[in-house]
Amino acid sequence: MKNTFGNSVAVTLFGESHGEYIGAVIDGLAPGIAIDHGYIAHMLTQRRPVGKISTPRQEKDAYQIVSGVLNGKTTGTPITILIPNENVQSGDYTQMQTVARPSHADYTAQCKYHGFQDARGGGHFSGRITAALVAAGAICRAALAHKGIYIGTHVKKCAGVPDREFLDLASDIQALNEKLFAVLDDSAQTAMQDAILAAAAEGDSVGGVLETAVIGMPAGVGEPWFDTIESMLSHILFAIPAVKGVEFGAGFSIADMRGSKANDPLTMDQDRVVSTTNNSGGINGGITNGMPIVFRTAIKPTPTIFKPQNTIDFQALTRTVLEPKGRHDPAIVHRARVVQDAATAIVLSDVLAMRYGTDWLK
Amino acid sequence: MKNTFGNSVAVTLFGESHGEYIGAVIDGLAPGIAIDHGYIAHMLTQRRPVGKISTPRQEKDAYQIVSGVLNGKTTGTPITILIPNENVQSGDYTQMQTVARPSHADYTAQCKYHGFQDARGGGHFSGRITAALVAAGAICRAALAHKGIYIGTHVKKCAGVPDREFLDLASDIQALNEKLFAVLDDSAQTAMQDAILAAAAEGDSVGGVLETAVIGMPAGVGEPWFDTIESMLSHILFAIPAVKGVEFGAGFSIADMRGSKANDPLTMDQDRVVSTTNNSGGINGGITNGMPIVFRTAIKPTPTIFKPQNTIDFQALTRTVLEPKGRHDPAIVHRARVVQDAATAIVLSDVLAMRYGTDWLK
Amino acid sequence: MKNTFGNSVAVTLFGESHGEYIGAVIDGLAPGIAIDHGYIAHMLTQRRPVGKISTPRQEKDAYQIVSGVLNGKTTGTPITILIPNENVQSGDYTQMQTVARPSHADYTAQCKYHGFQDARGGGHFSGRITAALVAAGAICRAALAHKGIYIGTHVKKCAGVPDREFLDLASDIQALNEKLFAVLDDSAQTAMQDAILAAAAEGDSVGGVLETAVIGMPAGVGEPWFDTIESMLSHILFAIPAVKGVEFGAGFSIADMRGSKANDPLTMDQDRVVSTTNNSGGINGGITNGMPIVFRTAIKPTPTIFKPQNTIDFQALTRTVLEPKGRHDPAIVHRARVVQDAATAIVLSDVLAMRYGTDWLK
Amino acid sequence: MKNTFGNSVAVTLFGESHGEYIGAVIDGLAPGIAIDHGYIAHMLTQRRPVGKISTPRQEKDAYQIVSGVLNGKTTGTPITILIPNENVQSGDYTQMQTVARPSHADYTAQCKYHGFQDARGGGHFSGRITAALVAAGAICRAALAHKGIYIGTHVKKCAGVPDREFLDLASDIQALNEKLFAVLDDSAQTAMQDAILAAAAEGDSVGGVLETAVIGMPAGVGEPWFDTIESMLSHILFAIPAVKGVEFGAGFSIADMRGSKANDPLTMDQDRVVSTTNNSGGINGGITNGMPIVFRTAIKPTPTIFKPQNTIDFQALTRTVLEPKGRHDPAIVHRARVVQDAATAIVLSDVLAMRYGTDWLK
Question: Which of A307, B211, B316, D99 is 20 to 30 A from C255 via CA?
Answer without folding.
Answer: D99
